Amino acid sequence: MTLTLKTLAFGYRDREIGHGVDLSLQGGEVLALLGPNGAGKTTLFKTMLGLLPVKAGKVLLDGRPLSGWSRRERALRIAYVPQAHAAPFPFTVRDLVLMGRAAHLSAFALPGAHDRAIAEAALENLGIAKLADTPSTEISGGERQLALIARALAQEARIVVMDEPTASLDYGNQMRLLTHIRRLAADGLAIVLSTHNPDHALQAADRVALLKDGELTALGATRETLTPDALKTLYGIEVVIGSVPGSDAFVCAPRPG
């Protein structure tokens, strides 16, 4: 399954945020989107999902315009993990995750044993099964973010769009989530995520897209594209990128002095 953007312009009714975006996401890969605050990352994601109308260009799902798919058809194929937010109702964590099964149910149908088993597996995979019966209003922001990711996994879509999924997580859960993202890609899922941390892109992404002022400044394989010059253009700071001794990992750090 593929998600393709062709010369996409995106924004709101009276304001264009970005334009000329061309990229394609394939099954089995992780694409990381980086950009400063206000670059348009969340707006781009909402347009990719059909939550905002396209201002110009195209969003194609398996070669067909996204607008030609019903909401249910989209939900069966694309899952969305929004930025962590306060829960308005005290649903239990289990029920929050179980909501990911909604697209698989007919109108007024209740989740069955199969749906519950999938939700329980998602809770286990994210390491939050112990929170299953806890109201979602009584857990931390990081735990809520893990629950939202588990909900997306329960949806069983083949494309997952994650808006800053590590933003509210402690270091341990960040690393576990990045490892889990790589595992999902190995299972054939297509994943696009936004992040402010170049190290996360270096660890988890096959490709990166750099967005500034609504335009892509670079797109390509992670280690070839995520260079000190590219990050200086993006964030306005000098950085160094190097390998970790005894490992094949690469890290990014501010340039000394």
Strand content: 25-35%
| Tally of separate helices | 9
Outline the low-pLDDT stretches: none
Q: How are the strands of the biggest sheet laid out side by side?
A: 6-7-8-3-9-10
Summed over residues and divided by their number, the pLDDT gives a mean of 93
Tertiary shape: globular
Q: Classify the helix fraction into a percent range.
A: 25-40%
Looking at the chains present, what oligomeric state does this protein adopt? single chain
Describe, in plain words, how this protein is organized in 3D.
- By secondary structure, the protein is α/β, with parallel strands linked by helices.
- The protein has one domain: Rossmann fold (3-Layer(aba) Sandwich).
- The protein is 32% helix and 28% strand.
- The strands form three sheets. Strands 6-7-8-3-9-10 form a six-stranded mixed sheet, with helices on both faces.
- Helix 4 (113-125) packs across helix 5 (141-154).
- The longest helix has 16 residues, at 171-186.
- It starts with a strand and ends with a strand.
- The model has no long low-confidence stretch (mean pLDDT 93).
Gist?
This protein has a 6-stranded mixed beta sheet, sandwiched between helices. It is 32% helix and 28% strand. It is globular, with a radius of gyration of 18 Å.
